[in-house]
Amino acid sequence: MRSTKREDTDEACWWKAKELELKPSEILDALVDTLERDQSSRYEAYREYAKLFGAEPEMFGNDDAFSILRHADTVSQNELGNTIETLHAQVFKNTIVPGVATNEADYEEWTRAKACSRWIEGVQDEAELYYDAMPKAGLDMFVYGTGFIQIGHTEDEAGLCTLQYTRVDPRKILVDRLEAREGKPRNLYKKSFVDMYALAEEYGEDGDGFYGSKEERKAGILDTVPNDDLDMAIGSQAKCSMVTVREAWHLPLRKGGKGGRHVIWVKGCTLVDEPYDWSRFPLTILRYGHQLEGFYGQSAVKVLAPTQKNFDKLNDKIDEAQDLMCVPRIILMNGANLVLDHLDDLPGGILRVDGSTGSIQEWNASAMAPEVYQERASAPDKMRSLLGVNQFDTQSQLPNQLREVSGPALERLLDAGTARHAMTHKQLEKAAKDLAYLAMDYAADLEKEGKDLTVVSPGSSKTSVELLKFSEVKVDRKRMKLKGLPTNQMPQTFAGKVEQFQKLYQDKAIDKQTYLRMLEVPDVGGATDFLGSDEEIILKNLHFMVRKGKYIPPLQYDNLDLIVPITTAFINWYRIRDDADMEKVGMLGQYIEDAIALKAGLGSPDPQAPPAIDPATGMPTNPMVPPPMPQVDPTTGQPIPPGVQLPPGPPPPGTPAMNGQVPPDGMMPPPMM
């Protein structure tokens, strides 16, 4: 019996198909079929979750997407869908672009890390991550409990590669429940639907990793039965031929290790069989809720479904009761003198009763008890409270009891809902960083094939763009980390953000440059670049001196006031490094001394420079220089205006003549004693 069990286990090891002398598809067809039958209840639950959320009817094979509108009695007020859409808007309204942080990096490596951050931003923007894959996978996370985003690339005729992020339907992802109990399986299976003839054309050629001959692959594809999958939801009017293409990954024990495998196949035919050396799957996974164990997250639809179904039941009861009871009725006593033919133009009914007097009364019966209406009215609020969605976010208006609250109190109210979603926000932050790591790994693999991934990214100045090649911006993965803004810890309104950042700025926890950048108000890109240029040129000089050992003196154009604090902090940071050189520390100290001397020199007057004269008054503007004695006309005794020259006269008595000329002012010899 032990031998039989061992043989059954070996036959499930599709990544060892070559050793077992089998084709991978021969093992995988039976294996995946068994796993799908084992998890059929999960796939059925997925279909029910989609219906409860309000998915399009064509997802389930209906020929007419509007056929459901013909059955008005099945249409209900979908508060479940409204609540999930509001929660989705709260969480996925943020765009998170991770930044590269390096460990003990010099200026050159720091600049490279900044460029790598811009490259990541360019990749995600070019792939429209936050417009397509991320919001779709986020909705899957709430509806099904788990969302998937897969990375890939396209290549044009010129060989230019473009990274792509694609949302993968959770109904098309499969793992072994036992293997994935801890949430980290080593095998993952995916299916997709591709046009038969397009697939035959793609694999009817030779390519890296292709299995078998091109004739065998093409024949195997064309022999496949099309439109055979339940999730295709093929209607009776469909004329295309779609085949189910499956993909499997087996992870090696460690990154770059042996034993990993990647296979693509259709039923009965292997298309690709190649080694796989990544230590992770080429997908990012988003999960909602808490998982005690297992691979999949918890569906928010499952949490809200009982309340929505009770809400629907109350609606049905109230509608039925109103149809029966909410019509006008007349109570007619038997002795009343009334001709009934006169009442044939009134809606409603007439009730004849025995009575002592012949009177006529109107009777409008209540359809349901008031408690039933109150219970129905409270159902939407109950659903919102289950997911931490407040009424303000859903209806865009304050409840009556909160109309007079202050701004800070309102901000605390909104942040209370954000605190409930802290784990969901962390999932978004984790996914953003994970997708950035995936992009770098994928670009590194393309680089090994001689393809340098180039993207249009924000430039070094935030008001410009530039082409960045991965080979020029890549950073050693062992010396870097990706950092993202913790969105769950920040206020969600603009007023709240301004107030929070102002407090940080007033407490001097952040500088003006960081304050403007964190606000992300319009037209601050150029301002932040301008404000940071003084600091950046100083850091550039400091890193150059430490790396090259060559001294760069400060210039009069530098911000001399910043050099002292920045260089002092830089010296202390440099001294704690293991490779600190005290000679370079002395060089940095000299940089401070020269900056102080240069600043002092710029503030003192040049003794050789003539005094500046105010043109309006004729007086010097420099108070340190005494004003010249005013000239007086000897004939009139009046002061001579500035700039006016008197004609030469006879020299004063006792003054020797100098070739008939009067010596200029300042060259007169001392008087004779």
Biggest β-sheet description: 5 strands, antiparallel
Q: Strand order of the main beta sheet, please?
A: 4-5-6-7-8
Q: How many beta-strand elements? A: 15
Helix content: 40-55%
- State mean pLDDT (0 to 100 scale): 77
The assembly state of the depicted protein chains is: single chain
Output the number of helix runs.
Answer: 19
Radius of gyration: 41 Å
- Strand pairing plus helix content: what structural class? alpha+beta
Distance between the termini: 139 Å
User: Hey, roughly how much beta strand do the residues contain?
Assistant: 5-15%
Low-confidence stretches: 1-6, 69-73, 401-407, 521-528, 654-673
Backbone shape: flat
Quick summary of this structure?
With 673 residues, the protein is an alpha+beta fold. The protein has 19 helices and 15 strands. Among the domains are: 13-75 and 146-298, no CATH class; 327-364, no CATH class; 523-602, no CATH class.
List keywords for this structure.
single chain; 673 residues; alpha+beta; three-stranded antiparallel beta sheet; 13% strand; flat; disordered N terminus
Overview of this protein structure:
- The chain has 673 residues and is α+β, with helices and mostly antiparallel strands.
- Among the domains are: 13-75 and 146-298, no CATH class; 327-364, no CATH class; 523-602, no CATH class.
- A hairpin with a 5-residue loop joins strand 2 and strand 3 (161-168).
- Strands 4-5-6-7-8 form a five-stranded antiparallel beta sheet.
- The termini are far apart.
- It has helices at 2-12, 24-38, 40-53, 79-91, 107-126, 129-143, 196-203, 214-222, 300-325, 370-387, 391-395, 407-420, 422-448, 470-473, 494-506, 512-519, 525-548, 560-575, 582-603; strands at residues 99-102, 146-155, 161-168, 173-174, 187-195, 242-250, 261-266, 269-275, 283-287, 329-333, 349-353, 360-363, 454-458, 465-469, 480-483.
- The protein is flat and about 140 Å long.
- The protein is built from 19 helices and 15 strands.
